[in-house]
Fold this sequence. Notes:
The protein is an alpha+beta fold. It is built from 28 helices and 25 strands. A hairpin with a 2-residue loop joins strand 21 and strand 22. It is flat and about 90 Å long.
Amino acid sequence: MMLAETFLKEFGRLAAGTDGIRKLRELVLNLAISGRLSDQRPEDGHAQALVEAAGKAIRSAVTSGKIRKPKYFGKAKNSTLATSIPANWISTSLGDLGLISPRNEAPDEAAAGFVPMAEIEAKFGLPHGFEERKWADIKSGYTHVANGDVVLAKITPCFENGKSAAITGLPNDLGAGTTELHVFRQLAHVVEEDYVLAFLKSESFIQAGVPKMTGTAGQKRIPADYFALSSFPLPPLPEQQRIVAKVNELMALCDELEARQAEETGLKRAAAASALHHLTETKTPEETADRWSLLALRFGELFDDLETIKALRVAVIDAAANGAFSTPSERAQFTQGTVDDVLVSSNSGWSPRCDNVLATGDEWGVLKVSAVTWGVFKPEENKRLPSNMEPRPQHALGAGDILVSRANTAELVGRGVKVPEDYPRLMLSDKIVRLVLSDAVQSDYFLLAFHASPVRAYFAKVATGTSDSMRNITRSHIKAAPIALPSLAEQKRIVVRVDEVMSLCDRLEERVREGERLNAELMAALVHSLTETDPDGGGTAEPASLAEDASAITAPKLANGNAPETPETNSTFAPSKSGTTAPGLALSVDTKFQEAVLVAAIVSTFFQAGGEPIGNFRLQKAVYFARRQMGEHVGEMAYLKKAAGPYNPSMKYSGGIAIAKQKNWLREARGRFGFGHVPGPNVGDASEWIDTYGYEAPARWVAEHFRYKKNEEWETLATTDYAIEHLQTFGIEVGAAQILQYIASDPEWRPKIEKLRLTEMSVATAMLEVQALFSAEGRDDSV
């Protein structure tokens, strides 16, 4: 079992993605209710005793007349849990452990607590609130609750959001709550309330319940049967207490991680905002280039999320409209005018009562505001004009029309787009203003300047409306908006320069989204590895981290208006070398696919040579050695300095190993030395790709040179080679003493000195072998 603390400590970077912290919390709860957060102790006994104690208490209360026979007691079917549970746990149900939604009896004048839905938290560990009321005021028409109860919100979206609570602190142990609650109350203390809460807030319980909800949209509810009869994994009571303590501890770590990320994000965005402000204040192209070069030093660090990239776009537009990309002579010709100065005409459309469907074919349609909101014209955002209404052709759209929304949110009102072609059967609505520009302004420059910060500030000032969710401006407001106007030739040059930088921003956004997608894949793989049996094999150590370093994104040069250099696509492999690409190679093949082909070649070669699986430790190093033999350098590969490293975290979870498994080019199997990888049933499909890329030779080279070496020798050689490569990038003349110092200076690698018994003599010996293996002179190109 991999400890979840290790996950939170080492893999917190994965939580930096979209909903990352929420997914970490979900993982903690799923681990808790599957027995993977706690140890099982013989002295705890078996949970069967708790089920028997609960049943005895319920039957006794029925016999004594205190309660009627509970509706759900003894009604649960013998269903199996989605995940296995420890041997001393038992699968039961809440309906067999206590009462479901019981009633209270108390004097009318008694003080009580009322728990509205707003006081019930979705997050684990936050207490509920309540309002003190007289029992007489809340005993009818509400759900009865008492201290010690556990309640679940049953209505959408509260159920899906995880709203549930362990009731505490009510006056006289007495209360009521919203009618949208299911209640669990135990008569004998057989289960910790917070353990029940962990179950109710777990993603597995919620996701399994969503399809069972009944009712109409917006009013769907989870049935009481699901709440009462779902399979409930029950540990012995002492283990429940350990689980609750561990969950609280890990949730506190999640809170700490969340706060740290928020602080780091705030500082980074403040630094980006400051740097961009200085960029927009420049007065000459030379000053712009100078500020840009300073910004370039931290480019990959500052612009690695969508918010800072958005700010970069705004800053570039503002700088361009301010003349920062123009020469002093061109800047001197800038004039400050208004939109009305460059208009031939303007008009709005009409808003008839339309059919709520898209117009198709020869049908007429009326544009919705969303057609002009997002920077690109979206003609599909329209509603069909009813067939009994006469169209108004004067409102049809023509190529080059500038369309501006006059009613939208505070952020989006006054945004504009250009219509790329004629749409003779699409008409303006009265919420959209059409601008027809004169020859004095180029349309793309107009849109650029129209979205600069001074114009946005102007619209924020003149817009009317009581809420930020709906602001309104008039056609007069639009015509009076300020705009900077250079010469027509300079307008065109500015558009070219801005387009080049916006292309970079597009690439940055693609990189961020790809990173978020990869984080999601890695998180899913980690959830699987922590909740399912997933042997590494071959004596493989659990990876210390999956934090994959994002490749640095270098800012383009922007001196004297030069075009920016678009960064190369992030790649795990080195760029293809001229003359080495095999005939017929598809250039669109993803580099992770190439890694999968190399993995398949190595697994097949090692199996053919010895008939044994190759474990993850050796497979990681074998790929490293093969790529080094092919001439790649450490700087071109995604290997990190981890405990058993060099280690490529993405290979197992979303890269070559994962892809090769998915394609059944390899599978896991047990051999004499533990679990590892052997050729899969579809390995023949990989053969053509192995030939195409020429990976058979390096795979055979690795097997011939390393197959009979011990794991310690593999690690020593890889560590030494990595250190040599890294030190040489700093121009350091490398010797054994420098390598030992390099290893000792890194907290993760320092234990290698004792583990591998590294001395200057052993490192010097390894250096000689590395030179023979990987230097141009020592490399055997005949294999």
